[in-house]
Write a structure and sequence with these properties.
- Two copies of one chain form a homodimer.
- With 282 residues, chain A is α/β, with parallel strands linked by helices.
- Chain A has two domains: 172 residues, 3-Layer(aba) Sandwich (Rossmann fold); 96 residues, Pantoate-beta-alanine ligase, C-terminal domain (Pantoate--beta-alanine Ligase, Chain: A,domain 2).
- Chain A contains nine helices and ten strands.
- In chain A, helix 6 packs across helix 7 and helix 8 runs antiparallel to helix 9.
- The termini of chain A are far apart.
- The interface between A and B is medium-sized, with 30 and 30 residues.
- Chains A, B: Catalyzes the condensation of pantoate with beta-alanine in an ATP-dependent reaction via a pantoyl-adenylate intermediate.
- Chains A, B: One of its GO terms (molecular function) is ATP binding.
């Protein structure tokens, strides 16, 4: 397994691989790898000749009062996990390499970036779109895999790829959960025991919504209220949002039909913001 | 010479060319080709195996009250000029092909896009950066040539390429002028005889500034005033701006030294906005 730290080296390697006719797969990550990431590697592995993952805690997608400083970092652990998962190359740049002094260019996917998580995290998706555009230009992948845990992110990346004509196939991967249902997240490492117990009610509320929809409920307000009650009567979590939207384009729904997304963001404890979602065909 | 009208066809062709080891050169244009564009073809021609030009009047770089509707279009004439200049492929997409309904993604080079021409044309450079990013992803050039007539545009494209890590070599080309000094521009076609005569004083004012700087003048305000007087005492043109800046990064100058840019924008007649510039080493 190779580790490449500079942009020119990575571009040179990508050019060599493409000239040899190799198909490049990219899984972009912020490290602190867990089973969710490993599942992305497993999905990408048979679809490409060379599997590249980037490990970069991207500062432009963090807000001023967010957890950039304390975000978990464990390159040695990540390296081992990449090796066992069959990763060929880790692209592991420094912050200065990615954002040298005087950096000023940003990619924005308007509309999609201001709703849901974008309301609480105003420049988050601008940072995501920008770093992914950079990674596509640096790693030059034929395909790239994104997890549905960050559902809005995946939709925004697909829209950016379509609008800016990146010649990259985007593959969406299902959420990986702990045995009790909690969605895997690097931020789960922040949770104290009691917070970990409370956090379970995010997924339980999603399952409760699924249950009442399957039972015939079609009133969006009633479903959202049921989710709110499930969370609030079982935890001290502060709900950031509960949204039910079109799973394809994240549009608002007049009536509950088609492929729908139910998405939740909650603050648990003082500093941890967790997100989760399910999709349903109604 | 091939003419390609769709994005998938152009990407397929670009992939084929790259797989054959061909070096692709791109000259992006809005058509209405003149000697200025031809000079870009001539510069690109020996540097690449396959010379591609794009002809696309890009709506996102025009403001609401600007000349998008009347911008000169002459595809047949352009085609002939491309053929004689040794162009291999014209990429000639429709507006719907480039900006389908629901288009929402933009590339912004902050800071550089808000000064000079950006003050009068607030979203102009966002449109330019966005369409060039798209063209780079569609045509996949190894190198691309930009004329210094649109000096600020060329600096912004270089910054976008650097910041977003596009693996494209940017080549800057000198301004081509009519025999009397007027900078070649597709917008010169708008000029009535008397306006054409007045427009000459843009370049004459630049030359006057050069003359007094060579004579020892170093006071930026005095030089700008001399330019203003040259224009205003010889024409009815309305000055949009006269700027003297660092030619490298367009930064403001405290003292007149190094490689400097003197840039002018003027409105001549009712609808025509012309720009011109010179660079000097002081």
């Amino acid at each position: 397994m190779e580790i490449i730290k500079t942009i020119p080296d990575m571009q040179k390697r990508a050019n060599e691989l493409r000239n040899e006719g190799k198909r490049i797969g990219l899984v972009p990550t912020m490290g602190a790898l867990h089973e969710g990431h490993i599942s992305l590697f497993k999905i990408a592995r048979p679809l490409c000749d060379v599997l590249i993952t980037s490990i970069f805690v991207n500062p432009t997608q963090f807000g001023e009062n967010e957890d950039l400083e304390i975000y978990p970092r464990d390159f040695e652990g990540d390296e081992k996990k990449c090796k066992s998962a069959g990763v060929d190359i880790i692209f592991y740049p420094s912050t200065d390499e990615m954002y040298p002094e005087g950096y000023t260019t940003f990619v924005e996917v308007k509309g999609l970036s201001e709703i849901m998580c974008g309301r609480t995290r105003p420049n988050h998706f601008r940072g995501v779109a920008t770093v992914v555009a950079k990674l596509f230009n640096i790693v030059k992948p034929h395909l790239s895999v994104f997890g549905n845990k960050d559902y809005q992110q995946a939709v925004i990346i697909e829209k950016m790829v379509e609008d800016l004509n990146f010649d990259v196939e985007i593959i969406r991967a299902p959420i990986v959960r702990e045995s009790d249902g909690l969605a895997m997240s690097s931020r789960n490492a922040y949770l104290k025991d009691d917070e970990r117990r409370q956090a379970l009610y995010i997924y339980r509320a999603l399952k409760r919504a699924e249950e009442i929809i399957k039972g015939g409920e079609r009133d969006i307000d009633v479903i959202i209220e049921e989710i709110r009650e499930t969370i609030e009567s079982n935890s001290d979590m502060k709900i950031d949002y509960i949204e039910i939207r079109d799973a394809g384009n994240l549009g608002e729904l007049e009536v509950l039909e088609g492929e729908i997304l139910i998405s939740i963001a909650c603050f648990v404890g003082e500093k941890t913001r967790l997100i989760d979602n399910i999709t349903l065909r109604v």
